[in-house]
Sequence to fold (361 residues):
Amino acid sequence: MASHRIAVIPGDGIGPEVVGEGLRVLERVASLHGFEIRPTRFPFGAEHYLESREVLPDAAFSEIRAHDAILLGAIGDPRIEVGLLEFGIIARLRFDLDLYVNLRPVRLYAEHLCPLKDVRPEDVDFTVVRENTEDAYAGMRGFFKKGTPDEIATQEILFTRKGVERAIRYAFELARTRPARAGRPKKLTLIDKANAIRAMDLWTRTFAEVGAEYPDVTRDHQYIDAACMYVVRDPAQYDTVVTSNMFGDIFTDLSAMIQGGLGIAASGNIHPGRVSLFEPIHGSAPKYAGRGVANPIATIMAISMMLGYLGESSAAQHIEEAVADLLRSRRLPSLGTDSGFSTRQIGDLVIEALEQVRAAS
Ligand code: IPM
Ligand code: MN
Fold:
């Protein structure tokens, strides 16, 4: 029997609640599909930091990287200096494991979940490839004369040819292999801001050069400001999107809203062939922590992505179909904290839907 070792970091705020339901779904699907999950829990996050002053010790980092995959809930807590845990845990894992792709699928499963009028599920089905190791996130920053009227603050936006090329190449491969939608060409859209951030000329040139190797993929280009307008006006135009770290961060929160909100948006932080990390794209939402109202579906969808990555594609698909059926049933009026269902009840509904999908197949 296949066995997968998963490092689990529930983290802060609503993280432990949504991860708890995610793991229940994972156990269920593992037993239905005949593989084993061996989870190891790691306590890192705000509580652990307050007790021990430890963010993510090197020994634990080595232990985590020896797993087959990592599942993360959410990191961030208002009691702690902004960015300390986010950079010490999430960004550290992304950078030190060199997880250079942040893959964020955007898919609308049921019309009532979209806040835009007359947008149907077939209109919203694209994947964003967000570069995940460079840009302003590289942390080359500084303050000079801090706290004085003459203060200077800088943070470098940096791109390397290698970093840009591997993200773009991954996106072309994905665009080539993603199932084609009826009547639409395979398309990759580059989103940048090369008109103002001239360093992004590196993206323009790399996109053209790598694109020449993929004549079967139609190339498109948009500036990030225009893309924010188009994704609301005409989301159906997107198939695969590739963009830089910071624009990808912003564009995917906006995109998440048109698929029903942060309650469903999932992501994979990937280095092909290596241990990779899967997480909901929402944060720790401290306001809702401990109230049992957070929607666990984003984490459940992240688990589906993780299973796909681990080669358990029928289990991955089974979860996706169960979630899609549940959403199409309209039992959940929304995917927010106001759905009228508790975190646990939504976990139960997904497990029930898993059984129904199985019975129907
Ligand atoms: C995300 C988050 C992180 C990011 C934060 C928590 C550092 O917003 O995964 O999108 O900006 O990448
Ligand atoms: Mn974000």
About this structure: The longest helix spans residues 15-33.
